[in-house]
Amino acid sequence: MLIAEGIVAGYVPGLPIVQGASLHIAAGEVVAVIGPNGAGKSTFVKAIAGLVPKEAGRVQLAGREIDALAAHEIVRAGVGFVPQTGNVFTALSIEENLKVGGHLLPATRRAEGLARSYAQFPELAGKRKALARTLSGGQRQMLAIARALMTDPPLLILDEPTAGLAPRVVKEVFRQLRRLAQAGVAVLMVEQNARAALRASDRGYVMAQGRNCAQGEAGELLLDPGIGALFLGGRSGA
Amino acid sequence: MLTGIFSYAVFFSCVVLILSILTLGLNLQWGFTGLFNAGIAGFYAIGAYTHAILTAAPQPQFLGNFGLPWIVGIAAATAATALAAWLIGLLTIRLRGDYLAITSFGIAVTIQLVTLNWEALTGGSQGLSRIPKPLAGTFDSPLAFNLWYLALLAAVVGLLYWGLERIVRSPWGRVLRAIREDETAALALGKSARRFRLEAFVLGAALMGLAGALYVSFIGFVSPFDFLPILTFQVWAMLIVGGSGNNRGALLGALVVWGIWAAAGALVAKLVPPSHAAQGAAVQVILIGLALVLVLLYRPRGLIGERAVVSRHADG
Amino acid sequence: MIAQALADGLFTGAIIALGAIGVSYTLQILRFANFAHSELLTWGAYLALVFVAFAGPGTPTGPLSFGWQLVAAAFLAALLTGVLAWAVDALVFSRLRRQGAHHLTMVFAAFGAALVLRNLVVLFWGHESRYYTRELQMAFEVLPGVRILPDQVFILLLTLAVVVVLYVFLAYSRTGMAMRAAAENPALAQACGIRVEAVVRATWILSGALAALAGVFTGLTPQLHPEIGFNLLLALFAAAILGGIGSLPGAVVGGLLVGLAENLSLLVINPGYKTAMPFLLLLAVLLARPQGIFGEKR
Fold it and tell me: What is the pLDDT of residue B229?
C-alpha cells in the first residue's frame, strides 16, 4: 500500500531530523514505529503525510508517487492523519468535527461517512452536538480517529495515539485499530508506548537518530533482548 | 547662504543624535530582548514633560513649572520614565508579542491624551514654554548655542554607545541574548527570564526618557504634537533600516531615516505649492511607509545585519 | 442620562462590532495584530463617498437622511474594500508569510501599510471633514430622556442583519465550517484537505467588506475624515480580544461592551479621555482573563 524510501526531512531546511529512513506497509497491516525520544519518528510520518518538508526520498501510495504533493492533496490521495496534539477542533461539535473531516467529500458520501463513524464509535453518536472540548481524553482520541476515517482512507497514520490515556482506554484504542486493519485499512502508528504498541501490531520499525535501526515481526522485536533493553524498559518479552 | 546650510546641518545633527538615543533604547528592548515596544512616543513624552514641568519658569496657571536646574530635570526625567516602564513592564511583560504591541501602543495613546487634557500640568494643546536651555546665557547666537549642544549630545551619545557595548558583552547581556535566541532557554529560566527582560525594558525606556529631556531642553518648549504615533514608527524604521540587534546600526539608521525624512520633506515643500501642504506632508509619509515595507520584504536584515547566527526574529 | 449613554453605547458598539469581527479572525488565523485594519474602515467610507459623489446619497427615504443609493454605495464599497484587503495581503503579508517572517515583522509591516493607506486618503481627499448627505435629521424621543436618530436605528438593524447572515454562513455552510476549522487549527484543517491559504484569502476579503460597512456607518454619524478608522483602532482590538479572538459572538459582544463602556465613562470622566477607555478595558481583560469571554484558555 505504502512505500517510503530514503526520506530526509526536517522543519528547517538544511537541518534534517529524519536522515534517510524507510518503511513499507500493506493493506490490512498494523505497523508500529518505535524508538527513543528525538529519534525522528513523528517527523518521519509527518513527512510522509506531507506536513513536514522533505529534502529527499520517495513515497509511493498504492503505486502512485505522492512525495511531491501538498498536504491537502495527499489527503485527497487517500492518507488519513491523526496528529498527537491538536487533533480535534475543540470549538466545534463532534458532528462538525466529522463533517470537516469529510470536507472533500460530496454530500452523500459525507453522510455515509457520518453514519459509519457513529456505527464504529457509538460513544460519539450519543453526543453529536457536544463541543469537542468537553470530551474526555479517550473520547477525543476516538473522535480524532473517526475524523481521519471520514474519507475512508486506505492508509491511516497516527502520531502517538495513546499518549496520556488511561490503560483501559489504551486497550480500547488498539482494539479499534486492529478492527480497522481487519477491515483492510493499513494502520501506521508512531508510539512511545512501545511494548503495548508492538503487541497490537503485525510488524515494527525501530528508529534512532533519524534512521532505521531495526525492523521485523512485532513478536520477534518484543523478544529481542537488545531492543528490549534499549526501548522497552529493561525486561524483554512479557 | 553657507552659514544657512551650516546652521541647518548643526540643527539636523542635533536632532539625529537625540533620535539615535531613542533608537539605542529601542535596540536594547527589541534588538537584544525581542520586546516589541509600540509605545516609544509615550516614554519619550514622559521624559520630555517631566523635564519641562520641573525646569520651566513658574507661571501662575500651571501646577508645575518649578524652575529647577537643568541637571535635576534630566535626572528626574530619566528616573520617571524608568519607573513608568517598570510599572508598565510588570503588567505587560508576559504578554505575547502582538498583544504587547497593542498594549504599548495604547499606553502611548493614553499618555498623549493626558498631555492634551491635563492642562493645569501640561499646558494642554498649547504645551509648555520657557524651558531653560543649559548654559543658554553663555552664548550670543542660536548657532553658537546649537554648536555647544551638538558637542554635549555627541558626548552623551558616545558615552551611551560605549556603555551599551560594554553591557551587551557583559554576563547580563549574554543572558539577554540567550533569552532572545532561544525561547526554550527562556522557558527554562522561567521567572528570571522575565526579570532580565523587565530590566532591559526599563533600561531601554530610561534612555527614551533621557532623549525626551534632551529634546525639550534643546528646543525650549514642548507640546503634545511632538509625540504622535508616527514618531514610534520613525524610530522603528531607524532600527530596522540600520539593522536591529546592533548599536552601530541604530546610529546609522537614525541618520539615514531622518535624512531621508528631511530630504523628502524639503523636496515636497519645493515641489508642492503651499496651498497643498497637507497633501505634500501625506506624500512624505507615504514614501517612508513604502520604503519601510519594501525593506522588510527585500532586505529584512537592514543595512548592517547582525553577524549572528539565525535569530529568533530572523525575518528571512 | 444613563439611559442616553446606554443608547449611544449600543449604536457605537454595533459599529465597533462590525469592524472587530475582521480583527478577531485575522488575529486568530494569522496570529498577528493587523494595525492596518482600521484603514480598511476609512477606505470603505471614502470609496462609498466616491459612489455617492456620482449618484448622490438619494432622496431621503422616510425619516432617514438618505435613500437606497447610499446603501448600494455602501455595499459596492464593501466589495471593493474586500478586494483592497485581499490585495494588501497578496502584496505584503502573504509574501512575508512565505518568507517565514516572524509575526512581529508582520505587525510592523502593518504599521507601514496603515500609514500608506491613511495618507493616500489625505492625498486624494484632503483633511477636511466630508458628509454623505447634508440632510438634517430630527432626533426622536423613544424613552423619556433618550433621543435617537433614525439613521442610528437603521445602522443597528442593518448590522444585526449582517451579523445574522454571517453567523448562519459560518455555522451551517461547508465553507463556513472550513473557515472556523482553519481559524482554530490550520495544521489539522490541512490534514482534512482544506486549503488554508484559500481560507486566509476569504478571511481578508470578508474582513475588508465588514470594515467598509463599519466605515460607512461611522461616516454617516456624522461625518468622514481620514482619521475615522485610526480613532477606532484600539476599540477594535479591545473588542476582539475582550470577546475572545476567532469568535463571531465574541466580537459582537466585545464590540457592544466597548461601545457601552466608552459612552458610560463619558458620564464620569473628561470627554477628552474617551479614546483611552477601550484601552483600559483591554488592559483589564489581558490581565484578568486573556482568552476573552468566549475564548478558550490556551
Answer: 86
In a domain, B295, yes or no: no
Q: Looking up cell 457520518, which residue turns up?
A: A114
Contacts of C276 in chain B (CB under 8 A): 106, 109-110, 113
Distance CA(C263)–CA(C275), nearest Å, equals 10
B120 occurs within a structural domain: yes
Instruction: Indicate the pLDDT class of residue C181, thresholds 50, 70 and 90.
Output: very high
Contact yes or no for C122 and B103 at CB 8 A = no
Q: What is the pLDDT of residue C140?
A: 82
Contacts of C197 in chain A (CB under 8 A): none
pLDDT < 50: residue spans in chain A: 234-238
Distances, alpha carbon C77 to alpha carbons B218, C64, C70, C214, C222, in Å: 48, 20, 10, 11, 18
Measured between CB atoms, which of A75, A89, A96 is closest to C193?
A75
The DSSP string of B96-156 is: -HHHHHHHHHHHHHHHHHHHHH-HHHH-GGG-B--PPPTTGGG-SSHHHHHHHHHHHHHHH
ipTM comes to 0.85
Q: Which of chain C's residues have a Cβ under 8 Å away from the Cβ of B290? A: 112, 116
Task: Quote the domain boundaries for residue C129.
Answer: 2-288
Number of domains in chain C: 1
**Element (H or E) spanning C140, and its range?**
strand C140-143
Instruction: Provide the grid cell at A200.
Output: 497490537
Q: Which of C181, C187, C195 sits opposite A100 (nearest CB)?
A: C181
In a domain, C17, yes or no: yes
Q: Which domain holds residue B17?
A: 12-228
Query: CATH no. for residue C155?
Result: 1.10.3470
Among residues B199, B32, B229, B261, which one has the least CA distance to residue B113?
A: B229
> Which residue in chain B is spatially nearest to C284 when comparing CA positions?
B91
Query: Cα angle vertex C57, ends C52, C62, to 5°?
Result: 165
Q: State the pTM of this model.
A: 0.84
- B288 min Cα distance to partner chain C (Å): 8
Q: Which residues of C touch A71 (CB under 8 A)?
A: 190-191
The mean-pLDDT minimum among B169-173, B230-234, C294-298 falls in C294-298
Segment 48-77 of chain C within 8 Å of chain B by CB: none
Question: Which H helix or E strand runs over C100?
Answer: none
Is residue A188 assigned to a domain?
yes
Judged by phi (left if over 0) then psi (alpha if -120 to 50, else beta), residue A35 lies in: left
Q: Which range has the top average pLDDT, B133-137, B294-298, C116-120?
A: C116-120
- Candidates C119, C225, C227, C241: best to mutate against B (most CBs of B within 10 A) is C119
**What is residue C26's predicted lDDT score, i.e. its pLDDT?**
86
For A172, the domain range is 2-231
Alpha carbon distance B129, C261 (integer Å): 36
Closest CA to C89 of C67, C117, C68: C117
Query: Does any domain span residue C51?
Result: yes
Q: Give residue B300's pLDDT band: very low, low, confident or very high (50, 70, 90).
A: low
CA–CA gap between residue B83 and residue C281 (Å, rounded) = 23
Query: Dihedral, CA atoms, C39, C43, C49, C50, nearest 10 degrees?
Result: 160
- Torsion angle in degrees (nearest 10) through CA of C111, C116, C121, C126: 100
Give the one of C92, C107, C282 whose C-beta lies nearest to B98's C-beta: C107
- The burial class, CB within 10 Å (0-12 / 13-18 / 19+), for C10 is middle
Cβ contact A231:A194 at 8 Å: yes
Query: Is residue B207 included in any domain, yes or no?
Result: yes
Q: Give the closest residue to A78 by CA, choosing from A149, A183, A146, A153.
A: A153
Cα separation, A171 vs A162, in Å, equals 9
Asked whether the beta carbons of residue C188 and residue A83 sit closer than 8 angstroms, the reply is yes
Answer whether residue C295 is part of any domain.
no
Q: What is the DSSP letter of A12?
A: B
